[in-house]
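Notes taken during the Thursday session

The instructor put the following on the board and asked us to keep it in front of us for the whole hour. The protein is Thiosulfate/3-mercaptopyruvate sulfurtransferase. We were told not to look anything up and to reason only from what is written here. First, the residues (303 in total):
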Amino acid sequence: MSGTKTPGLPGSDQAHPAAVGVVDPTDLAGRLDAGERIVLLDVRWALGDDHGHEHYLAGHLPGAVFVDLETELSDKPGPGTGRHPLPAAERLQAAARRWGLRAGDEVVVYDNSGGLAAARAWWLLRWAGHRQVRLLDGGLAAWLEAGLPVQTGEVTAPVGDVVLSPGQLPALDADEAARLARDGVLLDARAGERYRGETEPIDPRAGHIPGARSLPAASLLGAAGRVLPPAELNAALAAVGVTQPGPGEDAPAVGVYCGSGVTASFLAAALATVGVEAVLYPGSWSEWSADPARPAATGAQPG
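Then, after some discussion, the predicted structure tokens were revealed:
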């Protein structure tokens, strides 16, 4: 792992930095109306619901292309992997070209769950070297709330020619996640009851990586399904030990994980809006808990 030093948190009086991580629906609509080229990706997905494409066909942002998280943003799981392994380079590039992506394109990704699924595409594209990508703040719900139009049916984009090069962002393996939980800050993006080990509906064992701290991804969404403003985000981060470093101090390295590397990508995107570059553990709890040699902690404390 490299490049895990994290910048300090900015002051809480900053305006919401829409240029980093997220974009406002009305701002996006204005730019689209002005004829700017922006590739729109619809990444509607929810665990246990395989009807994302049907929801897309019923109504999506005009011009948006549907992205399948299971087949395009993940490889099939196998021994020693989590439930959503990172896709092979050639598969991800072929998918991105199907979406119409060209070198230098700006990309906006969205879903209908506040970005909890779409952030997977946000992280993957950046990891593969395409940095001009943002989340639609509040997703489809915020777009509709703003009275903006939708389109029905399939959109087939002209095939793009983007060249992707995976590995352009650092990522954690299990050993590195364990070290970061001990020596830095490792954040668990799952719901609190799963972190505490009270329930585990999906993965082999209940609990969390020893030393990891709980910061559920959904807790960083406000009532309107948008990313919390900076002051509230900074307060949530301070509560789990991610604080402004003192003079001459380095900010702690920050890592994120979840069940299979999807919602933790949203945590990384939300943290990016306040200048925190969190490193993803893609295998996450699904990989960790499948290895009987890896310990599991339970309860509300990191352990």
